């Protein structure tokens, strides 16, 4: 072959190689609701959380992910402990030195906007983008992510958790229905503004990068089950928004807040990744995932990647002999499970806790909680208020107050909605004000 022909053939191969590389699907990994620093009935979970983050780094490499999206509730507390912070920053450093090109994090309702956003300028040097709170300039929530050649590969609408005060003006004389409607409209308006700016930016870039949305909120139709850890004051109708708030131009919407992985629209483009670790014993049997979305030729294909079980949780229910038999079986196989025991036998079994502790002594099993339903029934029958705050959430306490004061049934729905809003406002304002690192506080009531 003439020398010129050989040169042309080599050039063609090189050109084909470039085209092939350009056609590689953009891979985006979506996760949320890490709740770093969270405890389970007083038992710290740092080892479990560290194991998950190490697995996530390995998964990013194995799946050749280009972008990592973390859709809020990175921490469980607005003032995370130093150990929780160390897990977070060590993880970001490991990702920054990997093949994953970008990390985008938004604040959730548990995160302090001030704390999470404080190091954002420094983190930019690691290609970590943090959006902790909405600002007067909505374009700050529009992020253009570039590949190694400086070509825009995605435009991300990184909308953090929107607090009531961020998106609406309180009006005198508003009914609960007016407040809910105005809140939903404020969320819709905010997303419309951010996405419109992103669409304009995308056109400036030639119209090829996909538009990706992010959010931390409760969508109507989203599923939450008893024991999954979602805070009760967000489960009612208040602050629920329809999936239609996300404009159709968004190819994919990565959501956080609900702990069950799920799609909330018919097309499957609006998705919750769910929490990567079970938030309670009720979730122990549910598979946890992170989501991998591949963008290619205008199409998006999403699949779940199963998160391994790093700490076995087991709820055992039954009579005393059945409970002890199951503990013996777990001991024999060398289980290291954390146990929640629910006794529902016919007898009272007043010394049940002591017997269970004796049954696990010398093993790697740990009993984190014992619920003796017979003792509880006896206490209620005797009208002896022995329920503890650990057994009741804030709404249950309020409902008992309504019953104790014989409030008419017709008045209860509006009172419950108003109380729910008050709780939510107090919680959000506290999270917004707090931001200094320190010792992890103990927060009463259920947590999401």
Walkthrough of the structure:
The longest helix has 29 residues, at 176-204. 35% of the residues lie in helices and 20% in strands. Strands 6-5-4-1-15-16 form a six-stranded mixed beta sheet. A six-stranded mixed beta sheet has the order 7-8-9-12-14-13. A three-stranded parallel beta sheet has the order 17-18-19. The protein is globular, with a radius of gyration of 25 Å. Mean pLDDT is 83; it is low at 13-21, 232-238 and 435-447. The protein is an alpha/beta fold. Helix 8 runs parallel beside helix 9 (352-360).
Q: Termini separation (Å)?
A: 69 Å
What structural category characterises the helix and strand content? alpha/beta
Arrangement of strands in the largest sheet: 6-5-4-1-15-16
What's the pLDDT, averaged over the residues? 83
Number of strands: 19
Radius of gyration: 25 Å
Low-confidence stretches: 13-21, 232-238, 435-447
Helical percentage: 25-40%
| SS strand fraction | 15-25%
Number of helical regions: 12
Largest β-sheet summary: 6 strands, mixed
Give the overall shape, derived from the CA principal axes.
Answer: globular
């Amino acid at each position: 072959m003439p020398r010129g022909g050989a040169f042309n053939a080599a050039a063609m191969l090189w050109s084909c190689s470039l085209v092939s590389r350009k056609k590689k699907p953009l891979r985006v990994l979506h996760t949320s609701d890490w709740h770093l620093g969270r405890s389970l009935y007083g038992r710290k979970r740092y080892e479990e959380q560290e194991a998950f983050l190490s697995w996530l780094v390995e998964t990013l490499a194995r799946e050749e992910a280009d972008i990592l999206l973390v859709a809020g509730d990175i921490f469980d507390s607005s003032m995370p402990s130093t150990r929780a912070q160390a897990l977070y920053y060590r993880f970001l450093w490991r990702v920054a030195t990997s093949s994953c090109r970008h990390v985008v994090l938004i604040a959730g309702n548990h995160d302090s906007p001030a704390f999470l956003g404080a190091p954002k300028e420094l983190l930019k040097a690691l290609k970590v983008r943090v959006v902790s709170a909405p600002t007067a300039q909505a374009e700050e929530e529009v992020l253009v992510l570039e590949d190694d050649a400086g070509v825009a590969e995605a435009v991300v609408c990184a909308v953090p958790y929107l607090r009531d005060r961020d998106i609406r003006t309180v009006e005198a004389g508003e009914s609960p229905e007016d407040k809910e409607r105005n809140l939903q409209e404020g969320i819709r308006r905010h997303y419309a503004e951010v996405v419109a700016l992103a669409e304009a930016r995308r056109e400036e870039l030639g119209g090829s990068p996909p538009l990706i949305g992010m959010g931390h909120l409760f969508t109507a139709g989203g599923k939450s089950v008893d024991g999954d850890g979602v805070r009760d004051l967000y489960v009612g109708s208040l602050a629920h928004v329809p999936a239609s708030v996300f404009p159709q131009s968004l190819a994919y919407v990565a959501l956080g807040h609900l702990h069950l992985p799920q799609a909330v629209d018919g097309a499957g483009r609006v998705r919750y990744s769910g929490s990567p670790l079970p938030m309670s014993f009720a979730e122990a049997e549910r598979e946890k995932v992170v989501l991998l979305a591949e963008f290619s030729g205008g199409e998006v294909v999403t699949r779940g990647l199963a998160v391994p079980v790093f700490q076995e949780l087991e709820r055992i229910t039954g009579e005393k002999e059945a409970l002890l038999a199951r503990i013996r079986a777990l001991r024999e196989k060398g289980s290291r499970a954390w146990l929640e025991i629910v006794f529902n036998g016919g007898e009272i079994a007043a010394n049940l806790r002591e017997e269970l502790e004796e049954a696990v002594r010398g093993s790697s099993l740990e009993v984190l909680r014992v619920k003796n339903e017979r003792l509880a029934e006896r206490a209620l029958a005797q009208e002896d208020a022995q329920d503890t705050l650990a057994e009741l959430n804030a709404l249950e306490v309020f409902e008992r107050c309504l019953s104790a004061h014989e409030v008419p049934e017709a008045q209860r729905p509006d009172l419950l909605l108003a109380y729910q809003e008050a709780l939510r406002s107090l919680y959000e304002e506290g999270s917004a004000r707090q931001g200094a690192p320190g010792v992890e506080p103990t927060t009463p009531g259920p947590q999401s």
